[in-house]
Amino acid sequence: MKILIPPSEGKAKIKSLDILFKDTNFKFSKYTQQIVDLLCLIENEDLTSVYGTSQDKAIMFHRQNQDIFNSKCVPAIERYTGVVYDHIDWNSLSKKAQTYMTNHIIIFSGLFGLLTPDTLIPDYKLKMNVLSLKNLWKPIISESLQSEDLIFDLLPQVHRKAYTPTKNTIHIDFLVKRQGKTSAAGHFGKAVKGQFIRFLAQNQIKKTKDFSKFEYDGFKWDGKHFVKNT
Hints:
By secondary structure, the protein is an alpha/beta fold. The protein has helices at about 30-40, 45-50, 55-65, 75-80, 85-90, 95-105, 135-145, 155-160, 190-205, and strands at about 1-5, 75, 105-110, 115, 120, 150-155, 170, 175-180, 180-185, 215, 220, 225-230. The strands form three sheets. The protein has a five-stranded mixed β-sheet with strand order 4-3-1-6-7. A five-stranded mixed β-sheet has the order 9-8-12-11-10, covered by helices on one side. Helix 6 (about 95-105) packs across helix 9 (about 190-205). The longest helix has 14 residues, at about 190-205. It is globular and about 50 Å long. It starts with a strand and ends with a strand. The model has no long low-confidence stretch (mean pLDDT about 95).
């Protein structure tokens, strides 16, 4: 069983381990190298569209990405910040819950493909929806997941395009129903997503029938989705 979750745009600036990324034997390093090689071909004037920032910041992120193999690492679960990861609150989880996450959580990344919570990664910035990265990763990620007996997909749409679901994939969405109309919870669904991941880990959940035990901020499982009526 695997639980698919997104990365965060924000990355923690914390003290790194004395381990370079090139020395980690990362499973998908050859594909990451292909992306770094592709980045090297981009002209400076095009960097703002790749990174979605000012020119100065884009150049900084670009240089950082180009040098990732010589950069120091921390575990992915400590690298990512943001609302989802704040609500997972990794450091407060029991060892049993952390082991569950390490065994079952898969984090999608535009630069690294698939990560587990304990995968060592350097600081970087690169979204899945640029440079056709989802097309590069799709066959690789799909092959990696095809033999899983059960997949809980908590990904946003852009990351869902980076793999082909199997018949064993269950898409888990957080929706808001207002005046009879239902829409994606969007940013407001990030907190509940983090809390749900935490719930899965704390309760060692492996069946959808147990989702009904989870409720947060008005979101309840209706058998297909988590829905909040407003």
